[in-house]
Amino acid sequence: MPPFVFAGTNIQIKIHDMIGPLCIIKKDGQRVYDAIHDPLKNGEEVKLDFDGVAQLASPFFNFAIGQLLKDISEENLKRFLHIENIVPEGRMVVDCVIENARQYHPDVDYRKIVDDILEQQARESA
Prior knowledge:
Number of domains: 1
Radius of gyration: 15 Å
Number of helices: 6
Largest sheet: 4 strands, mixed
Number of strands: 6
Order of helices and strands: EEHEHEEHHEHH
Helix content: 40-55%
Distance between the termini: 41 Å
């Protein structure tokens, strides 16, 4: 079965079929973002089905969902994005990513502080 199912203006994505059982890295999160951004921005309902996904991590969700808040309101995100069959720990990560993104995107000063810290951590780990 293909990972995308179009039902009217509703889009259903089976994450396991699209990404596999491990949703960890930002590259995979970006693939999900690329698939759902425009429909969500246009007010279409999107369902992400995590059935069969064994591991989830915040880098994946930062790219898949967190960056949606750059130009989609949190209200519309909650209204149009539906996440199904996700383990409770994964739901907690999603909620944390949304909370962080809600602070990050509209606040230029906060964004600069976070970006500076992440850049410093990247240099130290290189």
